[in-house]
Structure formats: C-alpha cells, structure tokens
Design brief:
- It is a single chain.
- This protein has one domain: YP_001051499.1 fold like (Up-down Bundle), CATH 1.20.1590.
- It contains nine helices and no strands.
- α2 packs antiparallel against α5, α2 runs parallel beside α6 and α4 packs antiparallel against α5.
- With 196 residues, the protein is mostly helical.
C-alpha cells in the first residue's frame, strides 16, 4: 500500500504541463480498453475518444493551436458509456478511460487541479478490478498488490514519474511519452494495441 500512496503523493506534486503529460500517457495506455469495448459492443463514439485525446497531445506539443477544452469535455461526456446499458465487463475499463480523459480536460482548464491523481487512481483501479475479475477466488488487497498486472501498473507509473519531471515541454517529449505508453504493445489490463 505504501508504494501506491507514494505514487499518488508524487503525482499530486506534478504541475501544469507535467501533470497533463503524466495523465495523457496513462490515458493513452488505457485507450485500447475503450476501443475494444466500442468494437465488441457496437458502441459508436464516432472516434471522439481518439480525437479528444489527440487534442490533448496537440496541446502538450505546444503547437499554439487553439483548442476549446470545455467543448471537448462535453463531447467526451456525451460518449462516456453508461454501465446500466451494457452487460459486458468491458464497459467498466471503457468508463475509466473516458473519465480519465475528462479529468485531463478539467485539469487543462483548471477546473480540477487534481486531474492527474484522478487518472493515476482510475488506471490502478481498472487493473485492480480486472485482477479480481480473472481470479477464481476473492483476493486480499495484498494479493492484488502482488499480482503481476498490478506490479506492472505501479512500475509503469513509477517509471513515468521518474522521467516526466526532467522532460522539457514540447513535441519531442510528447513523442517519447506516446512511445512509452505503447511500448509493451498492450493496455494497462493487457488488451492488445491494434491501431494508432
């Protein structure tokens, strides 16, 4: 539990560009969970999740493009699935990914200064729920913590935190972070990354 608390504390200390970049990298890593849900349940968000996440990366690249994040937030809220409408487990990681993206928008607009912490917790929460789902028996919090997927999630966030503070703002760092999010070829819960 200590490593989790340390992670959240360190995330809480991130500011501005670095907080958004941290949250965007975790959300990029959750994106396949949203995509798989859309494909398997015929939920059509018309590519809105992808477009909105791209607008965050564009903002992080410091291109000077004018992006209306209040509008982007509305669009993401419109395509956040409702668990009551679906009976498949996949809706839950998809909701976590969508809420993460909404938290980034609110972080950029200064409406939610703890947006990066929210994303950090949602990403770990997705893994925790998935570990419990695939287990044959109920697990203690210690057993969940020791599960390889949870260990990998905490290690990824720790590594990301170690690198992010020294990163300069701009396109070169964005490229590095996006590659880092996709480097394992799978999402935070092991869903294969099939497209960009």
């Amino acid at each position: 539990m200590t490593s989790k608390l340390n992670t959240f504390q360190k995330v809480r200390e991130l500011n501005g560009w670095h907080a958004v970049a941290f949250a965007a990298t975790l959300t990029e890593r959750m994106k396949p969970n949203f995509q798989l849900f859309c494909e398997s349940s015929e939920f059509d968000d018309e590519g809105q999740f992808h477009k909105s996440l791209e607008s965050v990366w564009q903002w992080l690249s410091r291109t000077g493009a004018k992006i209306n994040f209040a509008l982007q937030l509305e669009k993401i809220e419109d395509v956040t699935p409702d668990s009551a409408d679906f009976d498949s487990y996949g809706v839950y990681p998809a909701i976590d990914a969508a809420i993460s993206l909404a938290a980034i928008m609110s972080l950029i607009t200064n409406d939610e200064p703890q947006g990066a912490v929210i994303v950090s917790k949602l990403s770990q929460g997705s893994v925790e729920a998935f570990v419990e789902l695939v287990s044959d028996e109920s697990l203690s919090s210690q057993e969940i913590k020791e599960h390889p997927l949870m260990q990998w999630e905490v290690a990824f966030q720790t590594e990301l935190l170690a690198q992010i503070n020294s990163m300069p703002e701009g396109a070169a760092s964005v490229k590095t972070l996006r590659e880092m999010a996709k480097s394992e070829g799978v999402s935070n819960i092991g869903i294969e990354i099939t497209s960009a």
